Amino acid sequence: MFRRAVPIAGLGAVILTAALALITARAEATPANLSDHIDIRMPETADGPVPAVVMLSGCGGVRQVQSDYAEIANAQGWAAVIVDSHGARGIGRFGARAFVCTALRMRGAARAGDVFATLERLRDDERVDANRLAVIGWSHGGWTALDALALADAGEAPEDALDGLRGAFLLYPYCGTLTRADRNPIGADIPVTIVIAGRDRVVSPGECRRLVEARRAEGSLITPIEEAELTHAFDAEDQPWDPRMRFDRDGAERTFERFAVFLSGLEG
Known about the structure:
Elements: H1 11-25, H2 31-34, E1 38-41, E2 50-56, H3 64-75, E3 79-83, H4 85-88, H5 93-100, H6 108-123, E4 128-138, H7 140-153, E5 165-171, E6 192-197, H8 205-217, E7 222-227, H9 249-265
Parallel strand pairs: 2-3, 2-4, 4-5, 5-6, 6-7
Antiparallel strand pairs: 1-3
Helix pairs in contact: 6-7
């Protein structure tokens, strides 16, 4: 996905580059065009404003794994807010695999606008406790969340963009050189948990370890969780076939439990 670029030579590459530049220029979502692609799932026990967790899918788009975690969030009394960044931009499954998963379109920093827009919407939703917000991101979604933190810390986001955000839970995110968080601080106020899959061959576990070390040295509240024997997307049973990815039920169950504990820790 992001780890190795496939070389393209000749005139085709020039045409493709020009076309992608045009696509990227209009790719960023705004609250207006994103609103129809935000699925807010409230807990059945909701009685008054509840905390909410924003869910950012991987590069392939929204899948069943988001619903799996949404059920966990609802059971904890949290609203689950599934953001379909791909649908907001008219990106289907083929376009996702061909362009988003190859980092040719909708990179993390561009998609970070979806995070800011969704948080803004939630702060205006009377069903939601605007002071208890969180984000969870898978792979590309983790990259997006990291870049949202980096952009906000750099003053390249609205001043109140992260108001109410209490924490981030990131699963096997891309942490390489295309990531703003690879070279820029992510702030020291918002705790971040990163689950690193030791057998990941889609993104580099080593790059995530280096990012964690660098950001912690700056004072960021970033905590790695190492899963040495797991692959990319180990918790997603419905991923398309890829020899680099293997669903692991035990690993998924451990991570489900960690996510529930993560949410519980933000409720105080």
